[in-house]
Amino acid sequence: GESGTRxxxxxxxxxxxxxxxxxxxxxxxxxxxxxxxQAQGCDSRASGRMGLFFDSxxxxxxxxxxxxxxxxxGLMRNKKTQVIxxxxxxxxxxxxxxxxxLARVKAEHVIREQGISDGLDxxxxxxxxxxxxxxxxxxxxxxxxxxxxxKELVCTIIWAAPRSDIAELEVVSKQLKIKYGDVFxxxxxxxxxxxxxxxxxxxxxxxxxxxxxxxxxLGSIAKQYGVNxxxxxxxxxxxxxxxxVPTAPDFDMPPPNTGYxxxxxxAYTEGGRVHNPSQPPPAAG
Length: 285
Hints:
The chain is built from 11 helices and 3 strands. The protein is an all-alpha fold. A 3-stranded antiparallel beta sheet has the order 1-2-3, with no helix packed on it.
């Protein structure tokens, strides 16, 4: 219509005057909306970047993820128990058919899975304990030293989080890093000064089980499923320095970088000196 023609003419006139730098051109509504969206996007990105530098400890988030992690651990333990039971039945079949070498290989995996299951069970108990003592976490300001009553709990969760495949525990670990700082987090991750619970450290650390532990596992499986099996390589025990099949070593492990090592007998040695395997090695001087 006539009004539409006048509006177009007015717009052309403004464009011409703007080209001649006589009148500043106001943006169209579409361009105004686009500019607002871009500005909002920049603000959100900027706030996100600022959040990376100014993360704060969130107690409610930490407690919620501890509860979720305990539930997840329960599910994982049930699944591992089913896998272990299935593998033990397979080993019994191998022993019955005289496939001992393959049975030993599978027994190593059973020992490893059982250790992880036991470690997760203990980890769940420690997480529950940290939840009960959480007021001690909230009581102190961020970056203050961790109090002795919860130090082992906090260090154990930080150390175990990347080794447990539990996403909720990773969230808790990051929150504890914000709370206690990078230095404390690094010390806990490396288990400096043996701050991690010894049983969890033993069960969740990768290790090759000694011969006598495999022998004990195979004997237990044979007895459970009524398989008539006896080890046909008893000399191996003598080679390892045993007169009889010993029990598994205690769970205590030497702290890292102390110069101590553990033999297949479970004894800790340093410079030819042998320490009783039933006792943890002395602390580094």
